[in-house]
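Human: Cast an eye over this sequence-structure pair and say how the chain folds.
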Amino acid sequence: MKEEVLKGYRLAPQQRRVWALMRREWNGSYQNRYEARCEVRIKGRLESRHLRTAAQQAVARHEILRTSFQCLPGMTIPMQVIEERGCIWWEEDDLSGREDQAALVEEYFDEAADSYDLERGPFLRLHLIKLGAEEHLLMVKLPAMCGDAVSMRNLARDLSQGYEAAACGKGLDEEAAQYADLAEWQNELIEAEETRIGREYWRNRNLECRSPQLAFEGMAERDGAFEPRLDELRIVRIESLARGAERSVVEILLACWQILLWRQT
């Protein structure tokens, strides 16, 4: 029997968590509905070919954008396999002058992300929408195995710099830090002797503390099926508080969530 060999890197702890979530939900299927998304507003004249070149350069610079996740028979957790070449999923639409522009943009952004092929790609998805003569919207999506909110900000910066370089006929010379190196560092840190000693120390402390439980905690696991629910509530006082504090409603709600966790624990 020929022995199969898979060369790659172990998943980072964050990636293992995402993988476990994808496997647990939707009856154990691996539908990849976990995404990192962002919208980039672009004002002024735009050459889409330069932006596409910038995206291809970003894939070439960042290994995680061309990293597949593969398993051999018997493996339950995949490995990161860095491909030599990567590609992007690119789409363009012209909505300038359309009365239903806002509705179409929202529809594009909310499209389901169940068609990622984590073994082959492409992983980076870009949808360029023309809103006017000098106004565009770039939708950027990545599977959660390849990116998060910080990744989106860094990628938007790279696209901006890459576009400028492509317009001038240049490339980006700056070397980028690679995620596989970070993953290995995190795994080594968790497995280090000092870390093991620290875990055993705290396990042996006789600390009396109650086990906090949030409302509805674990209810989805008890009931089995995952059934998302949306409750719409207009909170005028929070919106007023946000304006007075010169903060977004999201920041105020996040502060409320942190206060709730603090009171529960």
Q: What stands out?
A: The beta strands are 35-43, 67-70, 79-82, 88-94, 124-132, 135-143. The two ends are 55 Å apart (CA to CA).
